[in-house]
Design goal:
Mean pLDDT: 76
Helix content: 25-40%
Number of strands: 12
Number of domains: 2
Strand order of the largest sheet: 1-10-2-5-7
Organism: Massilia frigida
Radius of gyration: 26 Å
Protein name: HTH psq-type domain-containing protein
Number of helices: 8
Strand content: 15-25%
Distance between the termini: 68 Å
Shape: globular
Length: 279
């Protein structure tokens, strides 16, 4: 089957259903994208343009790049999670995306190799290079691009291939009938000769992966997260693993929860202000 270089989410669902022999829903597709840390692109608005930014003698020099295509936006991992989990989200993106044939294009094999070699623990405000999406550190949109849940999203061909490979791996594990054997030694009796070793084959059970606690981050979910962040030993990496999201995303939600439910410093001048009259 011929797969387009980029596909809409609807087209990707059709291809996945055709190649795996079962129907895929949009929620299943999004869950796999998040679990496998796969890229998703958004359509850039008409008139978007690219600039390069490099430092020369300590100064940041910005140069227009009119020959570079500015059709797609790269979404970072925590930005994808923000669009999926937060109600009414709005993302301000800066990184363009390219497809095969464009000069700055980064192949998926290179992205995976870089992730494997550079996955390390960083502070929550830094980009986790183990979740690199192929975005450039040199080329940016001349003006930030606004992305919302109503934007048009597309996925590159290798994303579909990665999801199919993961699906086939799960199927192969499910149908496996042999694992490391357990050896049983029957107790010999007087009526029997010494028993020989017998082999018992045990089938491994499939355990469903842990899912995120909440589908959306409403007020109730934020309050629960805030309370959990106050528990002894609670850290951003631990909470991110528990909720099955990235550390950047969980850190952003914790700060949002603190703004809503955390203790605020007392204002020494509040008693001097006149009370607001009720209408």
């Amino acid at each position: 089957m011929l797969i387009n270089e980029i596909s809409t989410i609807g087209e990707a669902l059709w291809v996945l259903s055709a190649l795996t022999g079962r129907r895929w829903s949009e929620s299943e597709f999004i869950s796999e994208v998040l679990r496998l840390r796969l890229p998703v692109y958004a359509r850039a608005p008409n008139g978007a343009s690219i600039v390069s930014r490099i430092r020369v003698d300590g100064r940041l020099v910005e140069t227009p790049e009119p020959n570079l295509p500015a059709n797609l936006v790269t979404l970072l991992q925590y930005e994808i999670e923000e669009l999926v989990f937060s109600p009414g989200p709005q993302i301000i993106a800066y990184h363009p995306a390219w497809v095969y044939g464009d000069e700055p294009y980064e192949p998926w094999d290179k992205i995976k190799a870089f992730r494997a070699a550079n996955h390390r623990v960083l502070a929550y405000w830094e980009v986790e290079r183990g979740e690199w999406m192929g975005d450039s550190d040199r080329y940016f949109f001349a003006r930030p691009v606004q992305v919302t849940s109503h934007s048009t999203f597309v996925v590159p061909r290798f994303v579909i291939a990665e999801i199919i490979e993961a699906h086939r791996s799960r199927i192969a594990e499910a149908v496996a009938v042999s694992v490391e054997p357990e050896v049983c030694h029957p107790v010999p009796t007087a009526a029997k000769p010494p028993a020989v070793e017998s082999t018992v084959v045990v089938q491994r059970s499939m355990v469903a992966p842990k899912q995120a606690k909440g589908k959306t981050w409403d007020t109730h979910a934020l309050r629960r997260l805030y309370e959990e962040s106050l528990l002894p030993g609670a850290t951003h990496p631990k909470l991110a693993e528990e909720y099955s999201v990235s550390r950047q995303f969980i850190s952003k939600q914790i700060h949002k929860a603190k703004d809503q439910f955390g203790l605020r410093k007392a204002d020494p001048f509040s008693a001097l202000r006149p009370a607001a009259s009720k209408k």
